[in-house]
Amino acid sequence: MSEQFDSLTQLWQAQQVDVPDMKTINKRMVKERVKQYLYMAFDVSSLIPLVVIIYLFREKLGVFEFIYLSLICAAFAVFVVYLIYLRRKITATQTVTTHNYLSLIDQHIAVKLRILKLTKWSILAMAPVFLVLFGGIWIFSEMAFSDWLPRILKSSVWLVVSCGAFWIWVSRRQRKFELERERVRQQCDGALD
Amino acid sequence: MVTDFKKVLQEFGPLISRVAKTYEANHALSQELTQEMCLAIWQALQNFRGESSIKTFVLRVAHNKGVNHVAYYARIPRQASLDEDPAAPLTSSVDLEKQSAHQKQIEQLLDAVRQLPIQSRQVVTMSMEGMSYQDIAEVCGISVSNVGVLLNRAKQKLSERVQDV
């Protein structure tokens, strides 16, 4: 078998190889860095509109609205920090041994799935959040029902459409990562056990 | 310890390309994977502390990238189409036959390697790259005796699958 393996080794060394292109790699490296910064900027920027709204309308908002929106903003800030932490965890080192790397990939996919699950819960949480907000506006600001109803209807339609689309996108990604985890486990052939 | 990426690429470029081929049968995707492996090595070189040889380090990063690729793409690696791999220019009909048979054997070997589970695949390819059991164990994160067991099993499977070598 040793002689045959030597022949296989010779065959292995004789295969045609592709020389990596340095220029392309340089370009991709820059692109990769920009992508990472953009993801982080996207996470942080999602917080900015709410802060700006609270700041600009602080005098027009009632006490209930101000406190309620500030609390949501604070909770959202914690959520964003957690997302950034998870993203950093995903981009962890590539230099560990393959055995550890396989476990790491498995954990990464689990973290990605946890992010998606969390995102789905946050979408679901939008409904009661809006319900309490509009209920509070009606109760505390003594708004007329005829003024209040069109406002809540418009917001509800916007909420259902945007959250529905986001839900579908998240579900697709969830399926993709579940499939990815299955593939890794099949390829590992027990290496993760 | 900062190592010059260009020098690393010059020395290990062909090795990285061969590693990429064990994870991807499609020629275009294999080229893409080679680039991705180089990119990962570039990023990882900042953390190279000289605790292992540079070859071991490069192989570790390249294989990890390959594992990522497998996770992202196919469940079972795609079979290479002969049309996809640009063959070298041929001269006479005798040369043509010889080269065609040789190319077929290489394809057979690559297909057989790709059929192996990830760790067996790594162990056997690193062995064919002339690495010692100790170095292979360092890359894979398994014991030296385990390397021996995996390598023997892999050799047996390759011998069964690749004929007339």
* Regions with little confidence, pLDDT below 50 for 5+ residues of chain A: none
The radius of gyration computed from the alpha-carbon positions of chain A, rounded to a whole number of angstroms, is 25 Å
Q: Total helix count of chain A?
A: 6
Extended strand count of chain A: 0
Main sheet of chain A, how many strands, which sense, barrel? none
Q: Quick check: average pLDDT of chain A?
A: 82
Task: Explain what you see.
Helix content of chain A is 84%, strand content 0%. Chain A is elongated and about 90 Å long. Chain A contains six helices and no strands. Chain A has helices at 2-14, 22-45, 48-56, 63-90, 98-141, 145-188. The model of chain A has no long low-confidence stretch (mean pLDDT 82). Chain A is mainly alpha-helical and 193 residues long. The longest helix of chain A is centred in the middle third of the chain and has 44 residues, at 98-141. Chain B is mostly helical and 165 residues long. Chain B starts with a helix and ends with a helix. The radius of gyration of chain B is 17 Å and the shape is globular. In chain B, helix 1 packs across helix 2 and helix 1 crosses helix 3. Chain B is 71% helix and 0% strand. Chain B has helices spanning 5-23, 27-45, 54-72, 93-115, 118-128, 133-140, 144-161. Chain B contains seven helices and no strands. Chains A and B meet through helix 1, helix 2, helix 5 and helix 6 of A and helix 1, helix 2, helix 3, helix 4 and helix 5 of B.
Keywords:
heterodimer, A: 193 residues, mainly alpha, 84% helix, 0% strand, B: mainly alpha, 71% helix
Furnish the topology, listing elements before pairings.
The complex is a heterodimer of chains A (193) and B (165).
Chain A (H helix, E strand, L loop, with lengths): L1 H13 L7 H24 L2 H9 L6 H28 L7 H44 L3 H44 L5
Helix pairs in contact in A: 4-5, 5-6
Chain B lengths: L4 H19 L3 H19 L8 H19 L20 H23 L2 H11 L4 H8 L3 H18 L4
